[in-house]
């Protein structure tokens, strides 16, 4: 949990400082007074990135040159304090943990988790596959540092391979020639197989959890299902005749990865985890797409093109779900993230940005009940303190 925070130069917040305790803290005040910016600052110190801005420089106050966010966390696992500070300027950045300089804000990720819920979460259902992949990958990184490493390495190799393909398309050749292309492809296949196996295991782990939360939030009126959709699965392919894993192979891989991390090679009673079938399928897929990729100038298959299918009544919620159903499903997905963080790391800080305004009375009560059940530290921003469906342990009023 976070015990205090100091914020200077973040959007409209200047020289702001406050303390937090366990339980539920409500941050209230008029629109534009900095409630969401306070949540954003807590999230930055906890997760190492902003849930609003792609570039942290966007958090700098208008006409400002830099911002500083500093806070102290209590690590319940070690009963010790962790001090963090992030200073971002127009041309410089400084990140520290317990006085030690870190390479980047991303180095803060994976120790003090936070889960944010906000009205824009409806994009988890309505938005592009990239939104759901980002959600899935964030939870994936909660599970282990190995997952974080594989994800970063995959993205780096993908970027290099795409650059090679763009250069080839526009210049009829690229640095390193076909040998470099083969090396990058082999690396992509190796990392892609690991990432795919990890995502497949995670989707199997959380699909029933998401379904269960949705059932509670909707009062059992309707049901949803979740399934991982891969760009190399046979039923989704429309580009070429490459060979794919059959359903039996996929089930075996999924069961294996449920039992053991896909990054370990230790054997259990059923033998070692097998990623070879994943590598073979991915390699054959890319081989079949080579001409198309060189013409297109980018990588056409891989985990970066996958999706998480969320369906209701057999149809994608993205197109058939109502506003209420989609908001309900988004909250269910966020609570699933809370469970994963609690299981593999510690109880996360739950940041709620005015989520009750978009929910009907029954769903408000259901969400409030789940929040109390999780027993996490909660910081909620709302302009209407009196209308919250639960009693707060502390309140912070912000003024414009």
Characterization of the model:
- This protein has 2 domains: 2-113 and 349-397, 3-Layer(aba) Sandwich (Rossmann fold), CATH 3.40.50.300; 144-206 and 234-306, no CATH class.
- The chain has 10 helices and 16 strands.
- The relative contact order is 0.17.
- It has helices at 35-47, 123-126, 129-143, 145-171, 177-218, 247-259, 276-296, 317-320, 323-344, 361-374, and strands at 2-8, 16-19, 24-28, 66-75, 80-89, 93-97, 100-102, 114-117, 224-229, 267-268, 271-272, 307-312, 315-316, 349-353, 378-382, 394-397.
- The strands form 4 sheets. Strands 2-1-4-5-6-7 form a 6-stranded antiparallel β-sheet, with helices on one face. The chain has a 5-stranded parallel β-sheet with strand order 8-14-15-3-16, with helices on both faces.
- The protein has 400 residues and is an alpha/beta fold.
Provide a concise account of the structure shown:
This protein has helices at residues 35-47, 123-126, 129-143, 145-171, 177-218, 247-259, 276-296, 317-320, 323-344, 361-374; strands spanning 2-8, 16-19, 24-28, 66-75, 80-89, 93-97, 100-102, 114-117, 224-229, 267-268, 271-272, 307-312, 315-316, 349-353, 378-382, 394-397. It is an alpha/beta fold and 400 residues long.
